User: Fold Isopenicillin N synthase-like Fe(2+) 2OG dioxygenase domain-containing protein from Penstemon smallii.
Amino acid sequence: MFTIQVWSNDKYESVEHRAVVNSEKERFSIPYFFNPAHCTWVEPLEELINEHNPAKYKGYNWGKFFAARNRGNFKKLDVENIQISHFRI
Assistant:
């Protein structure tokens, strides 16, 4: 999840979900979705930033971000990682 990438200041990288079809074997998947409360402020955690590892993202409100993505119908819009690219410092 991209919020973890921001909270971890890039220690953990968000990846785009992709699935590969295997025509020889049945696939079973269970989706799990986690979203913070709409009032949650997402920014790199203080204990992970210092003078040698400055913050790589500016903070944002999760609810406003999610609402904007929802209004945009979750389109990729030719941006490498639309989820967090515009929050990079």
Q: What stands out?
A: The radius of gyration is 16 Å. The chain has a mean pLDDT of 81.
